[in-house]
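Hey, resending since the last one bounced:
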Amino acid sequence: MSDIFREVDEDLRRDRAEQLFKKYGGAMIAAVVLVVAGTGGYSFWRHWKEQKRQEQTAALVAALSQTAQGPEKGVDALAAFAGTADPSLAAVAQFNAAALLIRQNKAAEAATIYDGIARNAGVPAAYRDLATLLAAMQRTESGDPAQLSAQLQPLTADASPWRFSARELTALLAVRSGDTEKAGTLYKQLADDPQTPSGLRTRAADLASLYGKG
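The structure tokens again:
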């Protein structure tokens, strides 16, 4: 008798399972397919992204090699690469293109390239800040000291990796504007800061003395 009840119970369970599968089976299969597709898709995406980065790195090296044929050729090749590359690699190309322009005494054109890097939100913040600093350097003799100092202000903060160069450039701009008191104070601060790079620190100490802060 117990075997009969067991068979009936198993039949009921089987019927209930079949009913549940008919009701929810489609969603269950879809969920499994999505998980498998998602896992496979993510692996494919990672592989594709790594492959693309390797291809772009090779293309960047090829663009840099064009500099051997002359600065103009190099600038054109790097600009072409930057137009289609990942923002970070594009920025590397643009930094190199700007350096070639500086070698040709084309400071204004180099500064324009740096401006483009600084405005690109897709570029790492450290790159953008460096571009701001370098753009200001190219405009030190021709730009408005007050405007350039304002652009450099965020880079002089203690957390900035470019703070020492930004502070030195701000002091130089103060000299240009005739504020030797401010310049001397900034040079003195750089000279007294043990974290200031040694070469800059020595230079700052000499200039601080020049402006009566030694």
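The CA atoms of residues 88 and 123 lie 5 Å apart.

Sorry for the duplicate.
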